[in-house]
Amino acid sequence: MTRRSRSGRVAPADDVFAARKRKPVPHEFVLEALAPLGPETRPMFGCLAVYVEDKIVLVLRDKPAPAQDNGVWLATTEEHHAALRPEFPSMRSIEVLGSGVTGWQVLPAESPDFEEAALRACALIRAGDPRIGKVPGEKRKQRRTTRRDKP
After folding, report:
1. Euclidean distance between CA atoms 28 and 131, whole angstroms
2. What is the pLDDT at residue 22?
3. Which pTM was predicted?
């Protein structure tokens, strides 16, 4: 429906400028637990990436398929898996990232201890645990520097 403004010009329909509805935040309790750190969120692969300062720490996922990877993704590296496993028995590699062990690990939403594990991860992040969190692009920068330094 069009409307005329006071000047007589035709105004576009309101629905054209209506704000897009935002998707609900998956596992919003995680952001509440990290609130003291002032986390930032950004969309990533249809999920919600969570950053604290310059590090990506988590990805929150709740998508229809594949449902087995829904939950909280931990930004970590393979060297930390053994140390994190006692704290997160349900932690595993993310299947949509391919077969084999991945640096990223998921706390599956289908796990009976999901909320408890996710809140434990938040506590570790608040405490500054170095096992969780990655500076995006850091590995690529290191490789470039190493290659340039070689004669």
Report:
1. 22
2. 66
3. 0.77
